[in-house]
Amino acid sequence: MPTHPQEAGRAGSDPVGPVPEGAVSPPRGDLPQPGPPTRPEAANGEPGPDAAGPAPAEDEYTTAIQELEDRWRRALADLDNLRKRHARELERERAVERSRTAAAFLPVLDNLELALTHAGADPGAIVEGIRAVRDQAVNVLELLGYPRHAETGVAFDPARHEVVGVVLDPDAPPGTVVEVLRPGYGDGERQLRPAAVTVTKRE
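The structure assignment produced for this chain is given below.
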């Protein structure tokens, strides 16, 4: 059977043959093929916002963090210097207070030595001299803020008294201080020690 030229040309240009009805035809060789994606560019030919390049915002953040770290280190150094200066001032105040207290007791020691020097004299005078030295020491403690407490006939106060003995006394209310065995010094938070006392009770 002779072949018509039109059919031969059609067969040469379409080697895959006729496409059945409803099927998708393969891509033709003369159509443009997809290539690699290109970077977006602006209208004037410059790189677009998504083009690779330095991030100024990141540099600003790094600089801000470095400044904050420097300020934090300086603050720590200032705080350490303040702590050391406060410790030195506190130790200096303690030394001054110890010196002041010791100086206040120097006259007491002088009078004790004077009493011992006259120990061979009249015994009654020695007793009076020792009592005067005792009163002087009590006065020094009171001036330092630690008054003496040795009162009897007062009600027992747990903040100022320490019970070391109990006696029966029907004539006194229960809990009355009838004897002070060791005086106390100071009040409240400035108390050196409570007074050791004997109190009354009833059967």
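Interim note for the steering committee: The chain has a mean pLDDT of 78. The longest strand covers residues 161-168.
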